[in-house]
Amino acid sequence: MADITVRPMTSHDAGRVLAIYQAGLDAGNASFETTAPTWTAFDAAKLPDHRLVAVDADDIVLGWVAVAPTSSRPVYAGVVEHSVYVDPAAQGRGVARLLLDLLIASTEAAGIWTIQSGVFPENTASLTLHQRAGFRIIGTRERVGRHHGRWRDVVLLERRSPLI
């Protein structure tokens, strides 16, 4: 991990961020989405203060994490949904955990009290990662959407800040 650093995501990272996103989508257990959005759509959907990238010594993006608001209603201003993706070649090196830990610190510093995520039950690595980072399983939304022609369940996870 000494050769990995985390910094804020910038528009200069767009190509790598979207390529890593697409690789996760192509693997089939990351999202109902099948195609990564344009950078303009991605940028508009994610909160600017909580977008991080993990980079190697050559500043090559290895993974990213970002959050989106769950609602425009003021009462939910402290609740976000996050995504974390790691380049397949960098998986198993602790990149996702590092990103998630720093995202938690960033959101708590901003007064965000809940981070949510939905994970396919087949994505056991992501479920384990989240539980180790303090997320708890809220429940399973059964057959909530179709993905590649079949109904998929989604496990709902949340992390409530003990500080806020």
UniProtKB/TrEMBL annotation:
Which protein, by its recorded name, is this? N-acetyltransferase
A Pfam family reported for this protein in Swiss-Prot or TrEMBL: Acetyltransf_1
Q: Which organism is it from?
A: Micromonospora lutea
Q: Which InterPro entries match?
A: Acyl_CoA_acyltransferase (IPR016181), GNAT_dom (IPR000182)
Q: Which PANTHER family match?
A: N-ACETYLTRANSFERASE (PTHR43072), UPF0039 PROTEIN C11D3.02C (PTHR43072:SF23)
Which part of the chain is the N-acetyltransferase domain?
4-158
- Do the record's keywords include Lyase? no
Sorted alphabetically, the keyword list is: Acyltransferase, Transferase
Please indicate if the UniProt record lists Transferase as a keyword: yes
Extract the SUPFAM superfamilies matched here: Acyl-CoA N-acyltransferases (Nat)
